[in-house]
Every structure is written in structure tokens, then in C-alpha cells.
## 1
Amino acid sequence: MSSPSSQPIAAIDIGTNSVHLLVAKSNEDGRISILDTDKAVLRLGEDLDEAGNLVPEAFTKTIQALKRMQAIAASYQPIYRVVATHATRSARNYKDFFQKIYDESSIHISLIDGEEEARLVSLGMQEGLALDDKTFLGVDIGGGSTEIIVCQDQKVRFVRSLELGAVTLNKRFLKGHSIKKEHIRNLEHEVELKLGPLRTHIKGLKFDCAVICSGAAKTLAQMHSQDFQEKKLEDANGYHLTAGDIKKLTKSIHRLRSPKHISEHWHLHEDRAHIILAGSSILNLIGKLFDVDEWIISTYGVREGLVIDTIARLHGPQIKGFDDVRWKNILSLSKKFAINDDYARQVTNLALEIFDQLGEKMPSYVKQDASGVQISDRGILRAAAWLHECGKFISYPRYHKHSLYLIANSRLMGFSQKERQMIGLVARFHRKGKANLKNYDCRELSGKDCKRINFLASILRIAAAANRTRQGCITNIELHQSEEGLEFIFITDSKHAPEVDLYKISKEKKFFEEVIEHPLVLKTEYKDNG
């Protein structure tokens, strides 16, 4: 990655155990340079009530931590990128949580799923270690979930997110107990149950090395250095732990059992001592499952990956050698659902022509996120235009609704949960209906979100209608403003007017006019491209 000219990125990860801040920027050699960090141990995973809601105290302490991190990052004048992971994903009231944080701090939070978290972790690992062209197994044991990925560069071979977290397992099996062997056996049995279904999926899966990134891994490296090298480990990045090392450490932890005894023996911080038993058990059993001989510790993970991903979002086209992983995943999903590339390409090109020209003629309707970090409206439209027929893979009737389901729930890495939903909703409303807060599919959106969806869907309706016969008769669309209204000139290279396409366009223009509150004039022009 060559270094784009960019301002610092403040990456914040709201996890199950802790909230972390990383302020970094790209430097001249294409690597990221860390400017500042901060951490707050909040244990959100322990703040879910019986109904699955985050308790008020969780709101308060998270907002306080984020405000402190804002104050720390402020002097760097960064672009903020904030994500929330497992504990927040699990909370029924996460929308209220996000809204309260935004009201108090103006911080916008993206909820990411476990597989996107795994992708970000893998980016961080590749930044922190010299993995070159190696295919590697990457594991991140978090407070509420464990992410597992096998990849080379950004080519993902296998990815899973499991509800196995050091904090949640500790809370369920160990906390509040005078820990006995029976409690440990029950915990390990739970880990084995969750790992069991992976056995059939990983047969034949090969990798050159195994990388572990987590607080538990760093703690184990420190413990190992103290036990076998008799010195304090200052930096765990690149430290190697064999399977035998982890097995021995895990046995020693199990023998001591008590967090107090563990803390005293290895001089660990109390927060880490409380969850290392669960963390070491998870890592030990994952190592057995994947037949790992040796682990390499990475202190780079989701936050570093988030910085790299943000730089790519901001400067991707300018970065030499940067692959557009998002678009590759769109095309991969398209192939999976047997979408016709020629048709999708034509509709997508027409939709983007309309969008780009509207940006020139009517800029008040075409607004982009000022930071460029969130996916742009153009990016949403591009993805929705290419994928809008994917629902036909299930069945033709109601295929637009099937498209929403497939897009919103597919493994579409590189996109947040809300971004996938927005893409899916534009595809869903390209055919029938209108996004509004009363619609079940829009229940988690704001009025502003619905307005964006309708605007993009109205463009997609025109573009899809312009290729209704799937013959590509309308090659381009030109927009002009006149006294009559906004002129759409449909360029065709056929001497015979594409009557069916034009008829379908005329049927769809009402929705477009309603959305932009402007009359639309349709015209056709023949141009011989020969």
C-alpha cells in the first residue's frame, strides 16, 4: 500500500470487555503510524439484563469513556471510525444505545457482524506481522465472541464467528463461584460443543501459519516469558507460543483456578486474571481442532484493521495495489446467485450515469457523507444495481423481497450491518413500494434513511426499466434542465425506438418525480456508434 495523503484516523472498537481507541495515520512507506491509544474496561458483556437489554449504567459508562477518548483524540483532528461488536450485537436495545451515544457525543457507530470483524482483524494481523503471501489462520478471542478466518492477503478461504467469549464464558461458568474442577470441565465442554460443528467444514483446509490476536494471547505470552525466559515481555507482537506451551500454561491456570492466585503468581492485572482461564481454554481447544503446532502473537487486530480499511475507503482508488475488496465481494455474491453480468453491468452503468449527472444538475439531492468513511450513496446504488435481481435465485415471485433478505444476510464482508441493509432496501424498493417508517423492513431506520433509499431506488427503477428487454438498446442517458422540467434523453444505437423499454420508463417516472419533486421529461435520441 503506498501512502495516501490523509489526516489521522481515530478508530474506536466497542467490545464486550473493553472499549479501545487507536489514533493512527499512514506514513511514507505505506505502513500505519500509531499516534495514540486509550482503553477503558467496561465489561458490557456483563451489563445485559434478563431481557437482553443493556442496562442504564452501560449507557452512562460507555458515553463517559467515549467522551474521554474524544478529548484524547481531538488534538490530532482525526476522522472518526467507530464500530461495535458482540455485546452490542446481542443487545435488544442497541438502537437506543447508539442514539443516546450520538445525542451525547455526536459519534456515529457502525454495528459489524462477526465475519466483518474477522476480516478487519486479518487486515490488522497483516499490518503487524510479515505474513507476505502466506495463507494464515487468524483467531481473535474476544470478550463475547471468537472470530476465525483463513485467508491470504484479502482472499478469504474460511471465516466463522462463534459465540465463544472469555467474558461471557467466565460470567456463565466461573464468576461468583469458588472455582472447582467441575466448573472448568463444564466451561470446556461448552467450548467443545461450539467448536464441534466446524469439524466437517475445515477438512482439507490448509494454512502456512497460525496467528492469534487477543488480550488472552498477549497475557499468555507475558506469562510464558516470565515462566521460561524469566523476564518481563514488553512487546508481545511476533512472539511464538507452541501448542505445548499453551497446554502447559492452561494446566497451570486450571491448577491455580482462583483469579487472585493467578494474579499473584504471574503479576497480572486483576481484570486480565479474571478471564484468562476462559481465554486460555478457548485457545487450547481451537489449537487442537485446527491441529496448530505453533501460534504467532499479533498485537495488531481489529482497530489497526479498521484504520487500514478507513484509509482504503477514503483513498482506495489512489492507493497503488489496493484491491477493492468490497466490489470483489459484490461480484462474488453475484456469481453465487447466478446474476447475468451483462444485464447487471448495463443497469449499473445507467444508474450511475443518472446519479452522477444529478449531482451536477441538482446537487441538493445528491449528498455524500462529509468524511467519506461511511459508504457513499453512489456506492450503495452501485451495489444495489448490480445485485437487485439476486432474489430470483430463490424464486421469481416477490424476488425484490428475496433480494433484500439475501443482501442483508449474506456474507458480504467490507460492509457494516446497516450498509448491507441499505443496499438490500434499495434493491427491494426498485420494484414496488416505498420506504417509510411504517414498513416492517424499515423499522430500524430513520426518516432520513428512508428518504435516501427512495431517492436511490427511484434512480434504479429508471435504469432497470431502460434495460427491460435486456438487449442494451439504450446505451446512455443524458440529463438536461429545461423550462419543461428535468429532461432525460435516452440514447439508443438502434434505428428502431426501444418501445418496450421506453414504455416501462414512462411507468416508473411517477415515482422518480414524486421523490425529487420535479417534473421529468422523457426524450429519445439515436446515435450511430458504428
Note: Residues 325-526 form a domain with the Hypothetical protein af1432 fold (CATH 1.10.3210.10).
## 2
Amino acid sequence: MRVIAALALLLTVVAAPMVHAEPFGPQAFRDVWERTDYPVQVGLAQHSWIWGPEAFTPALREYFIENGRPGTRQVQYIDKGRMEINNPDADQSVPWYVTSGLLGRELIDGQVQIGYDAFVPLAPANIAVVGDPDNQFPTYASLARLYETPAGDQVGDQISRVFLPEGAGEFAQYADDPAAQIVRIERGFGIPRAFWNFMNQGGTIYRNGQFQQADQLFDWLYVTGYPITDAHWTRVRIGGVERDVLFQAFERRVLSYTPANPGQFQVEMGNIGRHYYAWRYEQAIPAGRQAIITLPSAGANVNSPLMVQGFERGQAFEAGILVRLRNQAGDVLAEQPTTVQRPDINYNGPFSATLNFAQPARPTSGMVEVVVSSPRDGSQTVIASQPVTIGGNEGQQPGQAPVDQVRQDLANRLGVAPGAVTIQSVEPVEWANAALECPAPDEAYATVVTPGYRIIAVAQGAEYIYHTDTGNQIRLCENGRPVPPPQADDGAPIAVPAANAQVTLPLHIQANLGEPGRQVTAELALANNIVFSDTLQVLAGPDGNGLVIGSLDWRNEGPPPNYESQPATLTIRGPEGNNLAARQVRILDPDSAETTSVDLYWLIGEDFASEQRVVPATQEIGATALEELLWGPAPRNQAGFGTAIPTPEEVLNYPGREDDWGPRVRLLGLTIENGVATANFSQELRAYGGGSTRVQHIRDQITRTLQQFPTVNEVQIAIEGQTEGVLQP
């Protein structure tokens, strides 16, 4: 009878999941929650909460800029995270239809994300990361000294270090704890066994109205994201009792391991959803104030144009406010109406406005103000103000800084699109001579004051300093000397890599040289005398001449040697050892902030496997991942990776190739709109030769590689801009 009663109870539970204090908005949110957390709620799971027992907010519409267009996305907050739907029209069967917010990054670096590349500053969260809410340490703000700074942990290392307010320490008692041993490295950060096992565990899930057994409860990248700090021990109060806790921050979550807890709750997700909500909506604006200005900071020197950002409590009539700048005399130099982007009335929301104004001759005190108008009589009330110093224009030279010329010059040098070059700063300067204080050796120049600019441009994660005049003279300056533009090498130009490009391993090479059917040697010599070399096959190019297309990687057994970012020389030699071409590049330390990593998906037989590859840091990360995929697996990879995407050999020998075909498949563009990624490839992709299996493999490789990114829910493949009828069996 007890068994029958238990079964009856279970059937009742299955038929009617719990009604939450705040019901989930879209059914898709509930489906995600039920998969992992409904079994926890009814006592059938052997793990702690993944999302939490309930949603504590209604579904909200948060402001979000996508592809340059303002809009909103639907979100809902649960104890352990935030669920998001970026594109409600996407395929709901795609796992990334509902995404998990990157709350960890925002809480630590103090930047509220309002678009894929748009942020409003807010002070890092002074909220306890683990343990009781009244713990004073560690907080998200205190994690700034650990954030994106790997300690260099290796697989097999034991974590006994302690994170303390006054610095670091050791908990020697955990030096042999298997749970604290590093078993995985992701983006330079070591992940302890306790966390990695939790992130990859199987167990009972609830799906399609029934309980099932799954080999993996959840995709760890989807739920936690990549680690953004190393794991550390700390000592905090939990339920009022001091406990030792191992914790680690990830992009989307915080994980903690408490040895004193019962087994099911030794590893837990932190309450990052509640923490973020409190930071953004409850604590952002001090009590008694209606708004704050977070940019510019108090006392900052400001010039035109001036960006003003901040948060308003949600009480402004129809969310309308006015941002203005006054000088010391009280004169209004500029004002701009704008809208507070809040989910609903009485919710905090960010605002942003750009003020253009005529700068005074000399620096003067000023005040940035946020103003609301009464809907009854139009009277104005200042709800936030910030003192600033308004920069003067006396002594500044007339003329427009040659920003476009700098952007184009650097793009030409690096072999990238001008849009990939960001102008970081433009500073008016009076150079001491006509050579702009950057003379070439033996250059004759007049020692006359020359008005101009110092322009700092950023591309591929590196800074480049240009000296310019007020006309068209620009000089890329390094150590007081101009950097000459790249020149073709020995009459045998190397198309890839571009001269002075930032590169990582494997290094991709395309060059018109050599004799078809023979081999050449590619050698990358670093400034510190480390040398990478390998042989590459010379193909017959479209014109019948020699063509080298391949990749150079560390080919010896064991890990490659450690090296810092530094200049390097790529040399290609013929079979007799003669130099055919050379090119200067800069190789990046794979563990530095100048790099990032992407996951590429390869074939092993009929199955797929992922490979993590280090690439130069870039905002165009999706396109970079696809371009790496098109170059194929690294040479001599021991995992036996293969690709279904046509190789250069297949493209060059394809019977149906046209006269205007190139030697390899290229990415022509990648757009992401409303969660749909459209990858546009060159016509050489048609060299796959047919076959339903190969077509599906090509689609799967591209789709899986793009869907690692939370902004991509669905993938559409185009060839030369056409999406209909492509990749037919």
C-alpha cells in the first residue's frame, strides 16, 4: 500500500508542477527551469538547484540594442540567474532560444550591458558572492583583482590558495583534497574537479511531461559560461556558521564547494540572479535620490561631444528626461531630451545622451544636470547633477583630425576591414618639428612647431600610435621612428598573413610561390629565438603557378614552449633552402589579454568533436571562428580531426569550377539579426561535390561553431548572398 500511495503521489506531482510565486512568463522559460529544477523540487534529483526554486520577478522587457537598433528583450530573474529571449521568432527547439545572462561580468566590472557592444557604467557590485547576504567579503567588487587574470594553473594542480581582504593565503588542509584538483583549463583558468563534475553530471531531468535519465543535465557553456576568475578558498558565514568555501566566478554564474555541506549541496550555484537584480534595480540609486550620473565622473575634464550616462529610479513622467550642461555662469551650453530605458514604471532604467557644444576659450567649471518636467505645469526639477571642468579650446589648432586616413592606413597594414579599427583617442598636439617628432633615420626636417594630433588606434587587441599634422601627413610611430608600410617580399607576395599582423598558432599561410608538386618549408622565428617550422605542399594555382595554402603549428610532442607576445619573422624556403619570401608579424602570447578562444567543430568519422583554438582578441568573434573553421584542422592533429568543408585541393580540382573561382572557400560576411546568424560564403563552397551526408556535415560544422555564441539561436547559410537552393545533396 505504501508503494501504491507513493506512485499515486508521484503521478500527481508529474501532472501538476508547482505554481510559482511569480509565474514564468513564456512557456520556454518554464521548460528550461523544469528540465533541471523540477526534479530537485520533488526530491528526485541528486544535485542542488541550477536555477532556483522559483522566479522572483515577472517577465520583464529590458532595453537592448541589437545590430545598432534599439529594442527590448524578454527576461526573467530566478535566484541563480536570468533567463533571456533575444529573438521570439526563432526556432524554439534550438537549445539557445532561451539564453542565460552574462551577469558575472557585469557585476564585477561594473558595466550594465544594454546591447551587444553597448554598456552603461555602474559601480561594481558591493554584494557578497557566497554565503550569508551580510558577509562583507568576498564581494563582486573585490573580485576585480582576480577578474580575467589567470594564475597559470595547470591540470593536476591543487587549489589551496585563499582569497582574503588583505591579500592571499593558504589553506594547507585542502592541499590533497581531490575535489580541489584542477582537471580542466578554459581560457587560461583552471577548473577544479568539484566544479567540472557538477557542470557535466548526468541524472534525472523533466522533459515533455515525464522524468527521464540524461547523460548530461545541462550544457555547461550555456549555463555557466567560461570562467572569469581562478578558483579560491575563502571563509564565510553560512547560516551564521563560519565555513570554508571554494568558489569560482564564471561569465553567467558563481559556483561554490562547501565540504561541510551534505553531499547533494556541496556544490551550489550562487544566487547571482538575486544579486544582479538587487545591484541594478534596488541598490543602483541611493535612498532619497531619483537619479544618478555615472558618466562623466565628478570633477572630470569634459569636451565636446560629451556623453552623459546614468540611471533614473523609474518615476519620470513617460520616462522622459532632459540632460544638459551649464557653465559657471549658469548658461546652458547644450541640452538633449532622452528616454529612460526602464522595463516598467517604478523600475530603475539606464539613460544616455550626447551633448555637442561650443567650448569656451579657457577651461571653466560647469555642471551636468538631469532634469524632469512636471506633466501638470511644465516646471522643471533637477534630479541629478555632476560638477565637471569644461575644457577650453584656446591654443587648439583648427582643422579636422585625419581619423579616416589613420583608420584606412592601419587597416591596409593589418589586412583587415577599416571597420575593424577603433579610434581610442584623438589628442591635439603641437609637435616640435615638421617630422611630427617621429623622423625616419637620416631624414632632414625643419624644427618648426607643427600643429597636429596624436591618435591612438586599436585593432586586433593592440594599440597603434599615430602622429599627424592638420592635413594629410600621418605617421605610425614606434619608439620615436615611423613604421614603414609593408612591402612585397622578394617579388613573391604572401597574401596571408598580412604584414605586421597579430597572429596565433596555428599560423595560416597563403602565398603564390614554389613549384607545383614540390614542398616548401615554412619557418616562424620569434625574437627570443624560438622557432616553429614545418613543410607545406605546393599546389597548382588557378593560373598553373605554385600556390601554398596551409597552416604552421607546433609539431613536436608535448605542449609548445611558453612565449610572450613579440615580433616574429615568417620565412618560406624552397627545397634547396633558398628564401622564397619573408614577412614580419607579431605573435601573441596565447595566455594574454590580447587573445581569446573559440570552439571549432570537426569530424571524427561520422561524429563531431570540438577543439578550443586561441585567436587574436576581436569584437568580430563569430566571423573569426568561421574563418578558423575554413582553414581546417591544425596540421598533424593527434585527435584525427577532419572537415567536410571543401579543402583547397578539392576546390582547385573540382570539375565544375568556374574561371573566376579562387583557391579556397572564404567567408564573405556574417550578420546576426534577431538571433539568426547568416553566414555568407564564397562560391568555392560549391566544391563539396554533393551527397546528403556531406551536406549535413557541412551544415552541422558551421551551425555548431556559431551556436557557441549566446546571440545565435539559428544559422542560415548563404553562397554569394543566395540562401535558396544552396548545399543541395
Note: The two ends are 59 Å apart (CA to CA).
## 3
Amino acid sequence: MEIASSVRTADIRTSHYLREICPYFRHVLGELILGAIGGIAMNTAAVLPAILLGRAVDRALAYSRGEATLSQVGWAAAAIVLGSLATDVPRVAKRWFLATANTRIRANLRADAVRGVLAWPMSRLMTTPIGDLMARINGDIEVVGQGVREFVVEMWDTVLFSITLVATLVIMDAQLSLLALSPVPAAMLVAYFAGRWVSRRTHAARAANAVMVSSIQERLTAARLLRLLGRTQSAVDQVQQHSQAQAQANLALVRLRSGLQPVYATLMTLGVIMVIWLGGRRVITGALTLGTFIAYIELYRRFVDRAFRVPQLINSVQSGGAAYERVRPLLASPPPIEAEPRYSSFTPGHVAGLAGIDESPVPPCTGPAPVSVQDMVFAYPGASAAVLADVSFDVPAGGMLAITGPVGSGKSALARALIGIYPLQQGRICVDGRPVEQFSAADRASRIAYLPEDSQVFSGAVHENILMGRADGPAMQSYIDAAARAASLDEDVQGFPEGMATQIGELGVRVSGGQRQRIALARAIAAAAPFSPGLLVLDDPFSAVDVQTEARIIAALRELFGPSAPPDRRATIVLVSHRLAAFPLADRIIVLQQGRIAQSGTHGSLMHADGLYRRIFLAQHRTSAATGQAMPLEVTT
């Protein structure tokens, strides 16, 4: 039902998509020009082998009658070889430049699709399956690229080639050519009217592929859990169902296109009857020489061998248009040509948009950032009820705010709201005196560091996870080392087989949960390196570490960003946690309950208030003491 609905609602605009992707043609304009030069040269010489073959035949017949010399026959044979080289050498150049241009177009489309998706609002990211995005960015762009390749390459290999052959055939014998080529318009009409079927079936096949990829992606991500629960066969059955649906959709498309191919070929070859019947009579009557007739048949054969691809080209472009309709909502605007390096359009392998990218954040200001939250109401996109309501507080520059509360009280929601990537239903959040939703990506990278609750890491080395794509070097390495020490990761790194270069595997499967959390914490600490972040938001940073490690991390954070640090190195810290060992050090503590502020104050005042905070703190203190890992902080009771 989902696939059928997506097909019915698809806005298939095949005739327009080639015009819409013109910016991608401009990025490879140099290669397209070189390929076009090769195509023009190839098609200019395309008729030479057949014509020279006919002349060689006539020369050989003349020699048999004593009307030509053996050297003339030899030169005629050599001319055939030269004519073939004049065609094939430009053909190789044309195909190289056009093929690399097409590969670059696909790479540019993928890069812009990823840029576009990463810039989506969180509401859209939360409602779009990752597998569907993977299918579009990978499979659908391949189909678009195939349509572009057919349009660009076959325009020279087939369309212009066929036009050249037709023009030569008409010059050789106009009446015979008109009769021989009369079925061609019928084939074009069939291709045009079959285009809507091709587009619809292509869209259905791509939608089915997206469902299957989503299913596989979800189950492979949860492969370990499925093994532990003994539910692997159920997962296989579900994937098999989606695979069968995809196979049926693909078979429907293949049946249609395969069925159209013999129709095109049959229509194109009907003219052979005319060529043999009328052309043979002209040779008998002497209106045509045998060599000219052989040359004509050779040219017509080459036309038939290629011309049936013209309607197939039309269908491939139509399929690309259907796939482009699925890719288009993902695409960011292509980078302007002016921002690209000089002559980059002639460079094979260059991906547009990479030139001049600097991932190193350059903050508009340094030092700690004040935070102000006023009458905030927050709900996750698509949720029916607010997670937070009537939340207001201020954190002075360089201060430390600690937030706690029961499970489901809105702690993580508040942390996510502070970094400005979710829209507010009401109220305002300001960082550095500016509404946080107005921060650009560069502003956020330079002034706000964030450790999410799930501590996600990526495949690659430890230092690559901390750098997150920024330029590496000796100067940056010192910041990485400092961040690792602050996150109490340095001892673990020393035990890794390759130190910071150790590969941690997909989603960090080769390291422990505590190590993943501390790698993510080091990434947050070094997020604005070589500067310090103005605001450091830590969401449950100690859930996977013991009390002693927690104490070391707290001490390191105070040393790096606390009151004793240089003014330009200090940071405002917002600590969200259900573990309260660090809370006595906070300038202010907020206790959330059911999405509202239940308590607010210092550690001392809240311990005297005999409320929820006191009960939680004392319970944790007794538990840690019973396990021999008592909270190493003085408690005011």
C-alpha cells in the first residue's frame, strides 16, 4: 500500500529534470566540451569506413577487369584502416571524458543530497526512515546517473551518429533512404507513449527498494539483539517479504523494457526489405555500382545496429526522471561555479563543493557564554504533548548549572533544546545574547559543545572520532590529547593496540560502553579546538563510568573550563545527569519533574529544603558508600 500510494502521488516531470540538473552539467563543463569535440570528430568520420569499403570493392573489381593497378587496390585497403582509426580514436576520447563527467555528476548529486539531509530540521529527520534515505542517495542517484549517461553519451554515440548516417544515406540515394527509414517515426512514437508506463514502474521499483533497504538496515543494526533474543528467523522472514515485493516491482519494469526492445528493433529493421528489393534492382540496372550498394548496406546496417537505442534512450531518460523525483527533495543547492578551483571542470574525480572547506571553527567571540531561557515550552516534532512547559532560568557566563530529575522528567529534552536544533513551541533561548535558533552551523560548532545521552561514535580511529572531520596536525594533536585526559580516556588509549589510531569499528563495537562514552566526551571537549566552547552541554556524561572516574572527569573539567582557568578558556557548563556526585560544585541546580521546574537553588539550599533533590542525593550517597565507592565530594546536610 505504501509503495502504491507513493507512485500515485509522485509528481513525475521527466521532461523537466534534465533542465533542473543543469548546474551539475556546468560543474563538468570542461569534460563535456572535450567529450563533445571527440564526439563531433567521431561522427564526422563515422561514414568513412563504409564509403572507403565500397570504393575498395569497386577498385578491386576494376583491377579484375584490368582497369586499375595493384597499388591502387592496396591504397584503397589502407584507406579503410585509416578511416577506422579516424573514427575509433575520437570515440575513445569521447567515451573517457563523458564517462568521467557522468561519474562526477553522480558524486556531486550524492554530496549535495547528504548536505541537504544534514541540514534538514530535526522534525523532518525524525520522521524519515534512514533506510529510505540510503536507498535514495545510493540507488536512486544511480538511476538518475544512468539516465544522464544515456542522454550525454548516447546523444553522441546514437543520436548524432544516426543523424550522420541518415544524412549520408539520403545523399547517396534519397528515394531509397526515405522508404528504408519510414518505420523509424513509428518507433519514436511507441517510445514516447510508453514513457508514462516506464516512469511509473521505475518509481514503484525505487520505492520498493527503499522499503527493503530500510528493513535490512534496521535489522542489521539490531543484529546482536536479535541473536540474543533468538528472533533471527523472524527478521529474515520480514526482509524476505520486502525482497519479494522489490523483486516483483523490478520484474515489472524489466518485463516492460525488455518487451519494448524487440518492438523497437523490429520496426527499425523493416527497412531492410526496402533496401534489398529496391537497391538490388538499381545495381542490376546499373543505377548503382556494387561497391556503392555495399557501402549503402554497411551504413544502413550500422544505423539499424544503433538506431533502436534511440527509443531506449528516451525510456532511460524517463526512468531517470522518475528517480530524480525521489532524489530532488534531498538536494541542497549546488555550490556556485565561482567557488570552484580554476579549470576544475576539466579535472576527473573532482567533487564540487570540497574546495575551500575549513572545518576548524572560528568563533565570533571567545570566553564563556551566558545562557537565558524564558518561558520555554518544548515538544518533540510530531508529539501530541509538550515535554517541557514554563521553564525559565539564567546561567551567567562561566557558571555551572546542574539539572536532574526522575526518568521522563524532560532532562534530555532540555539539553537538546539548549543547542537550538529543535524548534520551540513557545518562549526563547539565548546564548551569548542571541536567540540560539539563529545560530549558523559554524556558530554552533564554535560556541556550543554537546555530549548527547546516547554517546554515538563512528567507525574509524579514536582520534578521527574526536576530530570529527577537522584538519589534523601537530598543533591539533595537543588539543586531542588534552581532551582525552580530561575525559579520563588517556589510560585506555595507552592500552589500545595502536593508541589513538586504533580502529573502534562500526558504532564503536570494539570498545566498551564506558570507552564509547568517554570518546564522545573528549569529542565534545575538543569541539571548538583550538578555542574553548562558550557553552558545554553534557547530557548524562557519567552513566557508564564508576565514581572514581567521574571524580577525575569533574576535576579535569573544572581545571579546563572552571573559575581557575584563564578568562578566554573558561566555559559555561550545563550538566544534565541523574548522578549527583558533581552537583555540589554547581552554581545552581534545577530539579525537573513532569516537565516543569520543581526545585531550584544551590546544593546547600536544596539539601536543607527536604525535597526531591535531598532524597535523591542521600540515597545515592548511601548506595555509593555501601559499595565502597562513596561520593568523593563534601555533602552539606
Note: Residues 1-14 have pLDDT under 50 and may be disordered.
